[in-house]
Amino acid sequence: MAISPMLRGLRSGFGKLAIVSGFALILVILALPTFALPGDQPATVDPAIAATATADMAVAPDSQSTVAPAPKPYGPRWIHQDTFLNWGPERQRWADKGFSFDFHYISDNLGDMRVNSDTGRSASQISEDGFHNWQRIRGTVDYDFGKSTSAKGLSFHATGVWQNGTNMGGIIGSIANPSGITSSHQFRLDSIWLAQTFYKNEITVTAGIMAAQDFYGVCCDGAYVAEPMFYNFGNMGNTRMSYDPESAPGVNLKITPNKHYYVQTGYYLPSNDFGDAATGNGYPTGFVYKANHYGATSDTEVGYYTDPTPSATRKSYPGYYRAGFVYNGSNGTNSAVPHCNPIMGCSGFFDYSSGKFVDDNYSFYFWGIQPVFRTAAGSNRGLDLWGGFNVGPQNKSKVPTEVIAGVIFNAPFTGRPKDSLAFGMTYSKLGSDWKTDEKLLDPTCAMCSDEKQFEVNYLAQVFNWLTIQPVYQYYANVGGHNNGSATVAGFRLITHF
Description:
The protein has helices at residues 5-8, 13-31, 47-52, 77-80, 90-97, 123-127, 168-172, 212-215, 227-230, 432-441, and strands spanning 57-59, 67-69, 99-112, 131-144, 154-165, 186-198, 203-210, 248-255, 261-268, 297-305, 320-328, 349-351, 356-358, 361-374, 382-391, 401-410, 420-429, 451-463, 466-476, 485-496. The protein is mainly β. The chain starts with a helix and ends with a strand.
């Protein structure tokens, strides 16, 4: 009886290593609950009692009315600090002056587990089977002018990034990338902007070098490894929405009339890695920008919080929902540009139904997350359900529709309050006009079908400064261009400095 590609992958050396090491890591974490820091687990405490506790006192976890001395930290000091390098009191001293810093290293270490499953794969893809790494170092500084000047509500933000490695999505030929941090090799300014708040922080204006996808549609707060579930919908690029780290000039207005909802709108130029229309050269440092004729996006989003101030004395289920619309009015036959024409184009969007470049493109998305189960009052331990979709014209892109969904179990084990167990999926639907057009170029596209990606991972907060996230991913009809499959496994590592 034939063995499926997913099971055959377990026979490879990498497959055995990935599975064994991943489960070994989980077993070690579960078997040694002393890795969990004291006081991490939310306690059911009467607010009046908690308010009376001094800085060196803590409420006893088994009492609602007594106050006991906080236990002294055990083990080496580096286990308990928030960063790998101990800043001591320096970080707080800078914060008092208005400066806050964040430095972290993140790497996705993934491998293709397929063995003798060469359907639809090129010779170069087959030869690249194995374990690969994509890594990123990012440094961020924020400055609150109001801490040391009279410019209340004004803040400054700047981020720089270095990244390189091997893109696993290119190896397996997938639509949904196995890693949410891959793009291109970079050493550049990521973003730099000024933000000003007005009317008790109800209005915020932000302007500078910034990514539209950092403000609109962003997903899931790092609970997953794959791109659509870790960062943003994979087909946001259909309208040329700017993304990090290839950010671009933009301006954003956000209005928050109350704690329950907000509305924001922005105008963003496309990412500057599009480069020059004639030469194709990009601007890898981030300090030089040339918009060319790719059009800008006008973005609008409405967000709603069901319970913005959850109580610590009852079980709460604070949901978060948002819907957005993105529009790019780029002109497909820009008469002001000599080499623009309906066939070759240099602007606008290619229409697979007519075979020409046409004007305009748009995208509509919805995303929401809703807690459905909590174990105790004042705790986030329990289940969260989430999902979303992004749709646009089916004749102007390969993937006009993408659906993402999943379930997250926060703190699945007692004593591991910062861990999570997550399952998610991405459904990338191919456009019918793209498939018709592709069949003319490749008869095998008669078998083209939508790609389905599945992921399960366990996020382990080993120390305050160290996160390890073993992950397993399976692709049905990988790339949407054949009936093959792909299996990816490995882990993500994040270290804060």
